[in-house]
From TrEMBL:
InterPro entries: PPA1309-like (IPR047681)
Organism: Streptomyces lanatus
Protein name: PPA1309 family protein
Length: 180
């Protein structure tokens, strides 16, 4: 049974479910991509897959079921990879969980100018105020979005921050995977 708290809407529940799954795998994991499918539609159109995923009839019939996709290719920038994705009509949305280092806004003034991407990444990794964060971002075809952020130093289910605009750039990149 999931420890995911009951959230107000299916997209938030899906994001928290993915965050809980990623948390169970531990830190220092690769990015993971998920298709989000309508649970009721999945039960009707793919009963074998629904059964394999443990989606029995006794569970709620509304909501979204995250289905993890193949491992993301190594050596390719995330934004480049996302630009190659096209989803079939059965996919209602998608989600991505990824770990990053973040700095507080107060550190922005300290960033040296003119650093290459590699040198900037090294500078951030060595900054004393850096925070390791796991971001889970999900979007639906209609543009609805939700995010969950979990800091490594506060790695508990009660310390997960949620909101639609926590990682806007990643949400926009995921939304673009549904563009015609």
């Amino acid at each position: 049974m999931s420890n995911t708290p009951m959230a107000a809407n299916p997209l938030t529940r899906a994001v928290l479910e993915i965050d809980e799954y990623a948390s169970g795998l531990g830190w220092d994991q690769p990015a993971r991509l998920f298709a989000l499918v309508d649970t009721a539609r999945l039960r009707v159109q793919e009963p074998g897959l629904a059964a394999q995923l443990g989606l029995g009839d006794e569970q709620e019939s509304t909501g979204l079921t995250p289905i993890e996709q193949d491992e993301l290719p190594t050596g390719k920038q995330l934004d480049e990879f996302l630009g190659t994705i096209a989803w079939p009509d059965a996919v209602a949305g998608c989600a991505l969980t990824v770990e990053r280092l973040m700095l507080p806004p107060s550190a922005e003034a300290q960033v040296p100018q003119g650093l290459s991407d590699a040198k900037l990444a090294k500078w951030v990794a060595e900054h004393p105020d850096r925070q390791e964060v796991r971001m889970t971002v999900a979007v639906l075809r209609d543009g609805t979005r939700e995010s969950a952020l979990r800091l490594r130093e506060k790695d508990t289910p009660t310390e997960v921050l949620t909101g639609p605009d926590l990682v806007p750039g990643l949400a926009e990149a995921l939304t673009a995977t549904f563009a015609d």
